[in-house]
TrEMBL record:
<keyword id="KW-0210">Decarboxylase</keyword>
<keyword id="KW-0460">Magnesium</keyword>
<dbReference type="InterPro" id="IPR007085">
    <property type="entry name" value="DNA/pantothenate-metab_flavo_C"/>
</dbReference>
<comment type="pathway">
    <text>Cofactor biosynthesis; coenzyme A biosynthesis; CoA from (R)-pantothenate: step 2/5.</text>
</comment>
<dbReference type="GO" id="GO:0071513">
    <property type="term" value="C:phosphopantothenoylcysteine decarboxylase complex"/>
</dbReference>
<keyword id="KW-0479">Metal-binding</keyword>
<feature type="binding site">
    <location>
        <position position="326"/>
    </location>
    <ligand>
        <name>CTP</name>
    </ligand>
</feature>
<comment type="similarity">
    <text>In the C-terminal section; belongs to the PPC synthetase family.</text>
</comment>
<comment type="function">
    <text>Catalyzes two steps in the biosynthesis of coenzyme A. In the first step cysteine is conjugated to 4'-phosphopantothenate to form 4-phosphopantothenoylcysteine, in the latter compound is decarboxylated to form 4'-phosphopantotheine.</text>
</comment>
<dbReference type="GO" id="GO:0015941">
    <property type="term" value="P:pantothenate catabolic process"/>
</dbReference>
<feature type="binding site">
    <location>
        <position position="340"/>
    </location>
    <ligand>
        <name>CTP</name>
    </ligand>
</feature>
<keyword id="KW-0456">Lyase</keyword>
<comment type="similarity">
    <text>In the N-terminal section; belongs to the HFCD (homo-oligomeric flavin containing Cys decarboxylase) superfamily.</text>
</comment>
<dbReference type="GO" id="GO:0010181">
    <property type="term" value="F:FMN binding"/>
</dbReference>
<keyword id="KW-0288">FMN</keyword>
<dbReference type="InterPro" id="IPR035929">
    <property type="entry name" value="CoaB-like_sf"/>
</dbReference>
<feature type="binding site">
    <location>
        <begin position="306"/>
        <end position="309"/>
    </location>
    <ligand>
        <name>CTP</name>
    </ligand>
</feature>
Amino acid sequence: MDKPKVVLGVSGGIAAYKACELLRRLTESGHDVRVVPTASALHFVGAATWSALSGHPVSTEVWDDVDQVPHVRIGQHADLVVVAPATADMLAKAAHGLADDLLTNTLLTARCPVVFAPAMHTEMWEHPATQENVATLRRRGAVVIEPAVGRLTGVDTGKGRLPDPAEIFEVCRRVLARGAARPDLAGRHVVVSAGGTREPLDPVRFLGNRSSGKQGYALARTAAARGARVTLVAANTGLPDPAGVDVVQVGTAVQLREAVLKAAPDADAVVMAAAVADFRPAAYAAGKIKKKDGQEPEPIVLVRNPDILAEISADRARPGQVVVGFAAETDDVLANGRTKLRRKGCDLLVVNEVGERKTFGSEENEAVVLGADGTETAVPYGPKEALAETVWDLVAQRLG
Ligand code: CTP
């Protein structure tokens, strides 16, 4: 079988050096990679490096090898184009269809999925011009992954770092695995909650649960690879931020509610994979609760937390918003799931059985996705990513 053909576009930012590692990962995993740098990119990493690492000649202009019509051929034959780093200038050119060098020509002739991994200073990323260009590219079906937050060139820190090459590689792998299909969540905004809330009793203790956050993170990663802009509200997971996703860290159910409600108004779908504590201690002790000799401990009085899933289902932030809940059950799994689906008022409920090796902390999961329209989709035991893909298939169908 022919190796999948990947075009690695490199535009002129300091993060160009990180694209060398992305290139290595792509070639070592069996991809035929053609590197198309811009002239500015060559100020950071020279043509010899790209050529040696890819095993192909490298050119920035449409005027080399004209007999082979490279400005058309390279894009036409690609299975994937990934631009990393994508500068503000490159995003602007791509959004407006400019074609003044080999990379911009390639972007216009490619009919395969296109991934942009932007990297720039925070001000440039946040500028309305860049944001509108990104929105245009996403609407047209490109996968634009969110930049990471951290150290930028010089002493600045903020949003704008190129995500880790290993993470960009994972996005490419997932996009390629979906084949030529247009990323079906492109232009959509999805909110995913993950992990388990912790309800503090005192400065050192909390009431918590065993959710690892892995299923929610799998949902966030797969949605990003399907083109969505993803807000991940993460409760106490300790997991590294997935590439291309906006992560909001929270601790308690009340904080999780606030973060979800803040992100929900322009969301096309909200997926509540987090295990939210139903109760929290009525009082928080500002100092550590101490044992008292000869005295029984004080009972802990609990109060109800808001039911976030029921609230967002009842009060949809926009028409057609798809709301998905999760339910981990130990007994009468499907019967309880159906009752819960009606009680919560969501469109889909992913029901799984809690048991040994299943659900909490594991890499695998098995579930039935119940639809408010009466549908039932069984997902066999397998990686949490496979369940995540099925959830997004069902969400995408409902988004139409
Ligand atoms: N959920 C929520 N807010 C809560 C509790 C749960 O949004 N206060 C969401 C979870 O994120 C999950 C779904 O509701 O998507 C189901 O959670 P679960 O704990 O199974 O539901 P409960 O209503 O708490 O039902 P049970 O009586 O079985 O605990």
